[in-house]
Amino acid sequence: MLVSGYEMHNTFLPIQSKLQPPTLAETTVPRPRLQLLKNKKLPKEKLVTVIAPAGYGKSTLMAQWWQEVTENSFKTCWLSLGEEDNNPSQFLEYLVANIKNLGSPFNLDIIEKLHVKEFTNLNTVINLLIQALQKSSKPVVFFLDDLHLLQDPTSKSLLKYFISYAPKNVSWIIAKRRQANKEFHFYQKKYTVF
């Protein structure tokens, strides 16, 4: 297939705005009681969930946390989930894109050349991502916004597997509208935004 003069070979082109937090307005209200870092350290929980109805500021709070974490030199990944991410291959492609964005020392050669569609066992892709994250002890924080939109059982299972087996240096911050379901009850600290 030819697109704008470039030949495409099943290349996944991530939407870059899905890999970045929303821009904070200058009028954004600070929330010192909900600060993520305590003494410049991440919470000891592997998974922090932010649960609130639509319009209560989950994405804004997570963007503030993302800013706080990056200002303290932690490596970060961000994924704004959408209904289109219920395709397991596409969901994994976005996770791969996030690992690639981390750069050295996380960026294994195999990750750079990884094409999810070449794998029949998608857990193998997660295993490769875990290996890439084990290349360094530097803390990495994954932000997943709008998790309630991820309904596909395979995608949810892959995420549960990834969270369960990610190395100790990886923390997860997840925002969603509904109460925690049983799939993500492990290692959890909850913030309710009201």
3D structure, described in words:
The chain is built from five helices and seven strands. With 194 residues, it is an alpha/beta fold. The strands form two sheets. The chain has a five-stranded parallel beta sheet, sandwiched between helices. The longest helix is centred in the middle third of the chain and has 15 residues, at 88-102.
Search tags:
194 residues; alpha/beta; Rossmann fold; two-stranded antiparallel ribbon; globular; disordered N terminus; disordered C terminus
Query: How are the strands of the largest sheet arranged?
Result: 4-5-6-3-7
| Fold-level CATH name | Rossmann fold
Low-pLDDT segments, ≥5 res = 1-9, 190-194
Portion in beta strands: 15-25%
Order of helices and strands: EEEHEHHHEHEE
DSSP summary, beta strand count: 7
Estimated structural class: alpha/beta
Q: Give the N-terminus to C-terminus distance in angstroms.
A: 49 Å
Let me know the CATH homologous superfamily: P-loop containing nucleotide triphosphate hydrolases
Helix content: 25-40%
Total of helices: 5
In total, the number of domains comes to 1
CATH classification class: Alpha Beta
Provide a concise account of the structure shown.
By secondary structure, this protein is α/β, with parallel strands linked by helices.
